[in-house]
Task: structure prediction
Amino acid sequence: MKGTLDTKDEISGIYAALHAVYSKHRRRHRENPDSKQMCCMWSTNDPPDTIEGTEPICDIEGTFGIEVRENEALELYDMDLDQAARMIIEISKKRKKQG
Result:
């Protein structure tokens, strides 16, 4: 049970920090609803050709101390905030194992 509680707390903390990044970037695109979909951090009327290296992804990398690769950036773009928070935890764990 303790492991589950730690995981819930971890997801909650990641979600809160991710929501702050999301809110900052979503406000710049008023055409997007506040749907908690990661894609709303970019213009949905004129989406970028590449997600990796964009300001929202760079902010996510800086906030969580991770490197988001191209395929991961595309996956994050198609997620809601809860799914993205869980993926950020997985990316972080994967990088710690590798490095």
